[in-house]
Amino acid sequence: MNKIKAWAKQLKQQIYVLYLAYKDERVPWYAKLLAASVVAYAFSPIDLIPDFIPILGYIDDIIIVPLGIMLALKLIPREVIMECEAKAEEMMLNGKPRNWVMGSLVILIWILLGIWVGIVLYELLN
Questions:
Q1: What does the angle CA 18 – CA 21 – CA 26 come to, to the nearest 5 degrees?
Q2: Phi-psi region of 76 (alpha: psi -120 to 50; beta: other; left: phi over 0)
Q3: Do 14 and 89 touch, CB atoms closer than 8 A?
Q4: Backbone dihedral region for residue 64 (phi beyond 0: left; psi -120 to 50: alpha; all else: beta)
Q5: DSSP 95-114
Q6: Which has more pLDDT, 51 or 89?
Q7: 125: Cβ contacts below 8 Å, ≥ 6 apart
Q8: What is the reported pLDDT for 48?
Q9: How far apart are CA 29 and CA 26, in angstroms?
Q10: Model confidence over 68-103: pLDDT tens digits?
Q11: CB under 8 Å to 31, separation ≥6 — which residues?
């Protein structure tokens, strides 16, 4: 159980590293795009496979997120990663970052999805 907790803590720190790295100007655009996508997916309440589906629901958390982290870290220059690791440790001690832009984007997607479902249901019923 301690190994799982340590692994989860390490993943969380790596997500913070990516969060900091995608804001750094030394990171290539394609690495920024991947890092931002992984961070948004990891922090988002929307999953590729919903968690309520037995076993399969947690595959994205166990496989997809770590693979995205690993790939994004390979694309980011090592000196940037080292600087971001130090900042991420400090961040973990002080609390989560608040990214209102990404949060607003997730809310906007849910609102648009709700409107679309409403329109489709309205057209089906009429």
A1: 150
A2: beta
A3: no
A4: alpha
A5: -----HHHHHHHHHHHHHHH
A6: 89
A7: none
A8: 63
A9: 9
A10: 999 999 999 999 999 999 888 887 777 665 667 666
A11: 21, 22, 72, 75, 76
